[in-house]
Description:
By secondary structure, the protein is α/β, with parallel strands linked by helices. The chain has a single domain, classed as SGNH hydrolase (Rossmann fold, 3-Layer(aba) Sandwich), CATH 3.40.50.1110. The protein has helices at residues 5-31, 52-63, 101-113, 138-155, 175-183, 190-207, 216-220, 254-270; strands at residues 45-50, 74-77, 89-94, 122-125, 160-161, 163-164, 213-214, 230-233, 236-239. The chain has a five-stranded parallel sheet, with helices on both faces. Helix 3 runs parallel beside helix 4 (138-155). The N and C termini lie far apart (105 Å). It comes from Myxococcus fulvus. InterPro entries: SGNH_hydro_sf. This is SGNH hydrolase-type esterase domain-containing protein. GO terms for molecular function: hydrolase activity, acting on ester bonds.
Amino acid sequence: MHFDWTFLVRVSVLALPAMLLMALHGTVAQASAPSAPLEKLSGRRIFFGHQSVGGNILDGVKALPNSAQGVVPRVVEVQSPTESLAPGTLAHAMVGQNEKPESKIADFERLMDAGLAKSTDVAFFKFCYIDINGATDTRALFEKYRVALEGLKARHPNTTFVHVTAPLTTVQRGAKAWLKELLGRPVWGVAENVQRETFNELMRKTYAGKEPLFDLARLESTAPDGSRETYELNGQTWPAMVPGYSDDGGHLNPAGQTRLATELLNFLASLPAPVVQPPIPAVQATP
């Protein structure tokens, strides 16, 4: 049997340039690939105002290992609004009082205006699930929040302010919930989550696609496989926290902490670099 070596040579001559081009393209693509997400946070100064659930998320951040994605930001508690924050810092402080959401708005404003905005590139705070109950006037609360944030953005144009939806809780189910319904007693989480979601819809309608919005509630109600945790009330479907994310129905357990911490860092890393506004020149007095 005679093997045609000239055929092999001809095929090699034709294929080699294509193979070299493919290899070159791969090298260029690898060299021009965007930097790992967490690397973007190494140059940013971030402030997060919170209470207990926010503390759960920060516990999750501190537990995340450094990886090929970059170095996890250093979590530092702010003691004074005049502190200077270093790049790569996720600073935080407790703001306001639980069950008094207006106090959290006011405290966040106070910290920003007292000097903290000058040393932060990104700032945000979140309400707690306990701040919104079945009787909360969600529209009035949202309007107070909206007005406050508009003022902060105007006074501190070099800081990116992030909006965060209010967290949810699980909904009581099973025999106890059935018995409460039978007796006409409120089932834990049912009416409260309706109000929280009503508030969150105002947040989404106002800010989604227009300003940075971290949808904490949607993440809490979404299982790792993408399915949503919901319940029915008066013919409508409402979201609730995935039971696997909490041991007490409201605070985040280690699984919930890891999920929310990971999503928060991914979100923060995806934010565009802040646009620094030039200082307004002083008006010269006319002689």
